[in-house]
Specification:
- By secondary structure, the chain is mostly beta strands.
- The protein has 1 helix and 13 strands; from the N terminus they run αβββββββββββββ.
- The chain has one domain.
- The radius of gyration is 14 Å and the shape is globular.
Length: 151
């Protein structure tokens, strides 16, 4: 596990999303969370009211630094990705070399992020790391990485 995750996240805890085990930074509502997608941009966790991503994808560029597992292509090197907000709908495309690699759905409660990255297994959760440089821990079924440059 890399230093920014330990130093700014305080360790990791498991969360189950759509029957996949992911990781997230601990939050005040600590405890194991089990979530299911209510819609593409909403999760229902622990049987509570569903939580949806806000329409707040901003233009930004980020790089991938794997923390757990080896990320498959196109997330397997340090080439940058760009988040481009969609016109007329929520979220933004995660773009690399002109191709759409997934969707940045937006932020949720406690600063968490919700993404859909098919090459990494689908639904991914992000936890902001609170560093001077914008960094988020992104956990997907296929791998967990630090995205540096977007928050």
């Amino acid at each position: 596990m890399n230093a920014p995750t330990q130093q700014f996240c305080g360790g990791l805890r498991p969360v189950c999303v759509n029957n996949h085990c992911l990781l997230e930074c601990p939050t005040p509502d600590a405890g194991l969370r089990t979530c299911q997608s209510a819609t593409a941009d909403c999760l229902t966790c622990n049987g509570a009211t569903r939580e949806c991503a806000r329409c707040d994808a901003n233009v930004c560029t980020f790089t991938v630094d794997p923390v757990q597992g080896r990320c498959p292509a196109p997330f397997d090197d340090f080439q940058p990705f760009v988040v481009q907000p969609f016109s007329g709908r929520c979220g933004g495309g995660v773009v690399r070399d002109g191709g759409l690699a997934g969707v940045w759905l937006g932020s949720m409660a406690m600063g968490r992020l919700l993404l859909d990255l098919p090459a990494l297994g689908g639904t991914c959760l992000g936890s902001p790391l609170g560093t001077q440089v914008p960094r988020a821990l992104i956990s997907c079924p296929a791998c967990t990485f630090v995205a540096e440059g977007c928050e």
